[in-house]
Amino acid sequence: MEDKRVKEMAGKLVIVESPAKARTIRKVLGGGYEVQASMGHVRDLPKSKLGVDIEAGFVPTYMVPRAKSKVVRELRRQVEQAAEVYLATDPDREGEAIAWHIVQVTRPEGKPVHRVVFHEVTPPAVREAFQHPRRLDMNLVDAQQARRILDRLVGYQISPLLWKKVRRGLSAGRVQSVAVRLVVEREREIAAFKPQEYWTVEANLAQIPPPGKGRQPEDVFRAVLVSVRGKKLGRFDLKTQAEAQAIINELEGATYRVLHLQKKEVRRRPLPPFITSTLQQEASRRLGMAPGRTMRIAQQLYEGVELGEEGSVGLITYMRTDSTAVSPLAQEEARAFIAGKWGTSYLPEKPPVYKTKVALAQEAHEAIRPTSVYREPEAIRKFLDRDQFRLYDLIWKRFLASQMAPAILEQTVAEVLALPPTRPSPTGEQGDREMGYIFRATGSVIRFSGFLVVYQDEEGGPSAGEKFLPPLREGEPLDLVQLLALQHFTEPPPRYTEATLIRELEKRGIGRPSTYAPIMETIRERGYVERVDARRRNSPLRPTELGFLVNDLLVAHFPDILDYNFTSQMEERLDKIAAGSLARVPVLEEFHRALVTELARAETEMRDVRREAEPTDVLCEVCGRPMVIRWGKNGPFLSCSGYPECKNARDFARTPEGKVVPVERPAVEVREDLAPCEKCGSPMTVKQGRFGPFLACTNYPACRHTRPLPSEAREEETSEVCEKCGRPMVLRRGRYGPFLACSGYPECRNTRRVASRKP
Questions:
Q1: Beta bridge partner(s), residue 115
Q2: Count of H helices and E strands in the chain?
Q3: Number of alpha carbons in the 13 Å side-chain half-sphere of residue 523
Q4: CA 206, 210, 215 angle in degrees (round to 5)?
Q5: For 51, phi and psi rounded to 5 degrees?
Q6: Which residue from 410, 414, 415, 532 could staple onto 260, CB 3.0 to 4.6 Å apart?
Q7: For residue range 305-346, what is the model confidence (pLDDT) as tens digits?
């Protein structure tokens, strides 16, 4: 009996987060190892209460969610039968915390427990990690717990105040509220911006063609007037059309010639390989992917994809990183690949080293790169879905370009002299400048493509629309094709997109690679910001009426928590906890003391929006009394001040100047491609309801027929993972409201209710 027991315990158990990662590691390790997936976190703070004992030193109370109970039972059984346990969760604070929670719920007393860390799921990296296991790093666990507790203190102590003063279902967050503040302040900058008019005089010029040859389109180029009779033109020197037209009139009959040419060689260096934030920004800009979706697809590429006979293979390194470092082995492989494909001229003398520019970068492992550059995107395209291929192709090209030689461009600046016929003919260049009108044209030509053969960076290049100039010579006469007076206006700063908002958070040292995507999802799900164009995932963000209100209340009553520097400094303290140079409890105590003081003051001083009515200039079309803005469970609306005698209510919008105007509830999108109404045959339109968009008959109110949107239009991405198959869960709208469903439907039909909207 004893021999049988020893035999049962002879195996080694490896625990990872997902089934995909388990398949890849199982293939690498082979026999003697059992690999089990935890499906992400196995414990969390309770949803129904704070779950932190403040008096006892901020001790968290964890529980196993009901959805994870079956997974935990299986893990306990596997741990009981194993001789050794290896925790191979992700190589960051979150992964360290998941490993620690697994130990707490499985209780492997008396058995060796090893922590193994690798940044790419490849045979060499996995085997190296298993040859050099370590113990759990409790400093990393403490840092993750401190972040979780800080967020819980803010969410569960400020959010109830918002429920009391505004409406239920709202939430505040230590980082999410700062992100909303950035969007709100940018919107107010735009609203307050006063455009300034200015004009430019521009000339379309062309080389004089040889006799018998017509002018070609490439012979024409555009030049801008920069100097008038020796006086340099400033941006706002021509304020009106009349001033610009006066110059055009003076140039009637002028002669044009090339006065001066300046050529210089410009070396354009490649951008560094991706880190988390730059990957999210480029995937949004180039591929139209939301940050959350980018990270889910990157996770799939990291954990492993089935490549036919090769089996499950991890295609990229770990995707949550703020380091641009690259391993020497990867650089050597990239250099060999580049030399073989394009020649040694495309290699820099030495492998490049990129400095990390992220403020307070701490979780530095390695940049995001392909695990092997020899696994070219087109060669494995048939094994990847569309989004996996597009993202892998982007990562592969960016990394390869980062290891290549700079591109060499020849930049030309041409100055063209225009001499009106009424001016005396000057002598010498100085005289020309003092008596004539100087136009300037610039252009570039690629002399050596370098990294541009692989990847066009965001700075663009000649192939990305940069201007060309024909081969000009000093003193060469030119033909005037057209003289133009063009009107311009200064423009306000652009609205943030999710990608540029992440860049701003990163620049200020707010948040970390693992937090950017959840922040973007949260501020949209809570209704604080919305996309200007709901159909485009990279559309600019603007604050909603609710976003303005909640931000103003929080900034007024919780200035420390909403302060950019305070939030950045807190990130720095979390990093110090992770490094072991700072204890967790003192940081939490200091934060909580300030929070309690501000909470007490806000409790009495924060205005009660539910009982307030904001006056407007709009008159009720039913009784003629003024209408006021009130807040209901679905947000703000115009209500007659004569309520309850007059129950008239309207939707409203604000003009850029802040004026309130009544509007009809807009259709989100007219869908002529959908089947007409089943009851009356009228076209259907997409409208916004309490639980999101739905299809409604345009013949309303005569016909009140509605139906759900097609599933692809009703799905929203979430950060949840299916506990049955490990695929991402999506938020869908059903007959009885929203619910979570596995994205693997119909193969996996797992669904569960949406957690109550508590902070």
A1: 87, 134
A2: 20, 30
A3: 34
A4: 40
A5: 75, 20
A6: 415
A7: 999 888 889 999 999 888 899 999 999 999 999 999 999 999
Pairwise CA distance, residues 589 & 595, whole Å: 10
Phi, psi of 138 (to 5 degrees): -70, -20
d(CA 319, CA 304): 13
Residue 640 pairs with which residues in a beta bridge? 627
DSSP, collapsed to helix, strand or coil, labels residue 550 as helix
> Cα separation of 269 and 24, whole Å?
36
CA angle, 346 then 350 then 352, to 5° = 85
Could you tell me how far CA 690 lies from the centroid of its own chain? 27
Separation CA 542–CA 530 (nearest Å): 6
pLDDT tens figures, 633-673: 777 889 999 998 998 998 888 877 778 888 876 544 555 55
Residues 6 or more apart from 647 whose CB is under 8 A from it? 640
User: How many CB atoms are located within 10 Å of the residue 596 CB?
Assistant: 13
- Three-state secondary structure readout of 373-406: CCCCHHHHHHHCCHHHHHHHHHHHHHHHHHCCCC
Pairing outcome for strands 660-663 and 649-654: antiparallel
Beta carbons of 597 and 604 less than 8 angstroms apart: no
- C-beta atoms surrounding 210 within 10 Å: 6
Residue type, 60: P
Residue 120 DSSP label: B
Look up residue 749 and give its two tokens. Answer: 């039909």
Closest listed residue to residue 463, CA positions, set 477, 476, 449: 449
Cα(529)–Cα(177) distance, rounded to whole angstroms?
11
Q: In angstroms, what CA-CA distances link 414 with 223, 257, 261, 715, 738?
A: 9, 10, 5, 54, 62
Strand segments, DSSP code E, in 521-625 are: 529-531, 541-543, 614-619
CA neighbor of 510 nearest in space, from 559, 571, 588, 555: 571
List 86, 256, 318, 437, catalytic entry: 318
Task: Give the pLDDT score at 668.
Answer: 46
pLDDT of 275-300, one tens digit each? 999 999 999 989 989 898 899 999 99
Q: Is 516 a catalytic residue?
A: no
Length of the chain: 759
Structure tokens at 702: 């005569």
- Burial state string for 607-620 with b = 16 or more CB within 10 A and e = fewer than 16: eebeeeeeebebeb
> What is each CA distance from 721 to 105, 321, 495, 536, 690, in whole angstroms?
20, 21, 32, 24, 25
E-assigned strands of 301-372? Answer: 305-306, 312-313
What is this structure's pTM? 0.81
Burial class (CB in 10 A: 0-12, 13-18, 19+), 658: exposed
User: Which stretches of the chain score pLDDT less than 50?
Assistant: 1-10, 359-364, 459-465, 667-668, 712-713, 755-759
Please check whether residue 253 is in contact with residue 409, taking contact to mean a CB–CB distance below 8 angstroms: no
Return the structure tokens found at 110.
Answer: 């008396």
DSSP string, 35-74: EEE--S-S-B--SSS--EETTTTSEE--B--GGGHHHHHH
- 186: nearest Cα among 178, 174, 176: 178
Q: The tokens 């020899």 sit on which residue?
A: 374
Query: Shortest CA distance to 318 belongs to which of 283, 393, 368?
Result: 368
Contact call for residues 215 and 209 (beta carbons, < 8 A)? yes
Cα 657 from Cα 655, distance rounded (Å): 5
Nearest one of 201, 28, 199, 30 to 121, comparing CA atoms: 28
**Element holding 106 (H helix, E strand):** helix 93-106
**Angle, helices 564-579/138-165, rounded to nearest 10 degrees:** 150
536, 288 contact by CB (below 8 A):
yes
